[in-house]
């Protein structure tokens, strides 16, 4: 799965001269938290709801409504935007996007191709990607095995599945400790208890079946 499979293409954008109150209205209307800032289709910055609120007058301000409106009309996105935000290519693997977002502690990545903004990928998109990768919306069962790191493990397990006519919806691996892995299978059958019993007879440790 790649970034272009999960991103929001052609996202809503604003210019750096947009008043912050307009930017906040867009964010609230569309229920989003990030807005790319562009000029002639090129990304020049990014604003977040939090960043916009930071440069907005405090609700506890003693200014009059007239004064507040005057300030809000004068303060623009240019004063709140993140310049040169971290970006990603639409052809990057989805796990690369997840790693960048985790390491840099950002909630989204603008997606650029050349110098053009083509999309945006957010934490919500990453969760949706995880749901799709695991096939969670498709009927089936889940089997978790503990296996040692040796050549031929998957071949043995998939041979049994082939023999039983069972398809793999998804497969994930997790290294619990050096040389010891958990394999999480989502399978096409509604009840995998029989398969789990046969895997135990083959010497595999079954952690859970659901």
From TrEMBL:
The keyword Metal-binding does not apply. Residues 142-210 form the ACT domain. The keyword Repeat applies. InterPro entries: ACT-like_dom_sf (IPR045865), ACT_dom (IPR002912), CBS_dom (IPR000644), CBS_dom_sf (IPR046342), CBS_domain-containing (IPR051462). Residues 7-62, 81-138 form the CBS domain. Keywords: CBS domain, Repeat. PANTHER family: CBS DOMAIN-CONTAINING PROTEIN CBSX2, CHLOROPLASTIC, CBS DOMAIN-CONTAINING PROTEIN YHCV. This is Acetoin utilization protein AcuB.
């Amino acid at each position: 799965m790649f970034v272009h499979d999960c991103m929001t293409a052609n996202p809503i954008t604003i210019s750096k001269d947009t008043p912050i109150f307009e930017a906040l209205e867009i964010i609230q209307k569309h229920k989003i938290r990030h807005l790319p800032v562009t000029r002639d289709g090129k990304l020049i910055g990014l604003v977040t709801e939090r960043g916009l609120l930071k440069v907005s007058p405090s609700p506890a301000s003693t200014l009059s409504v007239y004064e507040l409106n005057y300030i809000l009309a004068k303060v623009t996105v240019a004063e709140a935007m993140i310049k040169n935000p971290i970006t990603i290519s639409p052809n990057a693997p989805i796990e690369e996007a997840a790693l960048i977002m985790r390491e840099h502690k950002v909630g989204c990545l603008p997606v650029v191709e050349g110098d053009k903004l083509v999309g945006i990928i957010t934490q919500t998109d990453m969760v949706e990607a995880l749901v799709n990768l695991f096939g969670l919306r498709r009927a089936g069962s889940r089997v978790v095995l503990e296996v040692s790191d040796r050549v031929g493990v998957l071949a043995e397990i998939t041979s049994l599945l082939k023999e039983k006519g069972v398809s793999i919806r998804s497969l994930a691996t997790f290294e619990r400790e050096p040389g010891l892995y958990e394999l999480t299978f989502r399978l096409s059958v509604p009840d995998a208890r029989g398969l789990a019993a046969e895997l135990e007879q083959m010497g595999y440790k079954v952690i859970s079946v659901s």
